């Protein structure tokens, strides 16, 4: 079965850390760029960051720059979103998606992504 499955979400206090995983099955994740998104209740889906396929360069939206890191482990066919210094406004359902681009990567929610995960809830609260 071809799918992406996120895991690692949960409840964390402000200032804490979480690492989300995005495990691929049925296809080789190394052939794709990876993007992460989040969607809070009542808000539109927001791009968080992405990791390119060819050179592993990363790009982030301003609000998470310096706090979030996208990475991948090709041997495990898994991508990650390491989140540090979490804030209440980071509370959302987080999604990963796989896509292909000529160069670089994108976290534009309207891009035609090949695969989407089902999402994992992250709640930042004291």
Secondary structure elements and pairings:
Blueprint: E1 3-7, E2 10-12, E3 18-25, E4 33-39, E5 46-51, E6 58-60, E7 68-73, E8 78-83, E9 92-99, E10 115-116, E11 120-124
Parallel strand pairs: 2-11
Antiparallel strand pairs: 1-3, 3-8, 4-5, 4-9, 5-6, 7-8, 9-10, 9-11
Describe what this molecule looks like in 3D.
The chain is mainly beta and 126 residues long. It has no helices and 11 strands. The protein has strands spanning 3-7, 10-12, 18-25, 33-39, 46-51, 58-60, 68-73, 78-83, 92-99, 115-116, 120-124. The strands form 2 sheets. Strands 2, 4, 5, 6, 9, 10 and 11 form a 7-stranded mixed β-sheet that branches. The protein starts with a strand and ends with a strand. The relative contact order is 0.33. The model has no long low-confidence stretch (mean pLDDT 96).
Work out the strand percent.
Answer: over 45%
Specify the oligomeric state. single chain
> What is the radius of gyration computed over CA atoms, rounded to a whole number of angstroms?
13 Å
Low-confidence stretches: none
Short account of what is shown:
The protein has 126 residues and is an all-beta fold. It has strands spanning 3-7, 10-12, 18-25, 33-39, 46-51, 58-60, 68-73, 78-83, 92-99, 115-116, 120-124.
Which characteristics define this entry?
about 0% helix, globular, single chain, seven-stranded mixed beta sheet, about 130 residues, mainly beta
């Amino acid at each position: 079965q071809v799918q992406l499955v996120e895991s690692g979400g949960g409840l964390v206090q402000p200032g804490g850390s979480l690492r989300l995983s995005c495990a691929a099955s049925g296809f080789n994740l190394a052939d794709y760029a990876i993007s992460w998104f989040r969607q809070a209740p009542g808000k539109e889906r927001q791009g968080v960051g992405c990791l390119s396929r060819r050179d592993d360069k990363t790009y982030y939206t301003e609000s998470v720059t310096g706090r979030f890191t996208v990475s991948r482990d090709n041997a495990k066919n898994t991508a990650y979103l390491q989140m540090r210094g979490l804030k209440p406004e980071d509370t959302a359902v987080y999604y990963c998606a796989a896509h292909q681009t000529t160069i670089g990567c994108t976290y534009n929610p309207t891009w035609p992504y090949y695969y989407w995960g089902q999402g994992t809830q992250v709640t930042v609260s004291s």
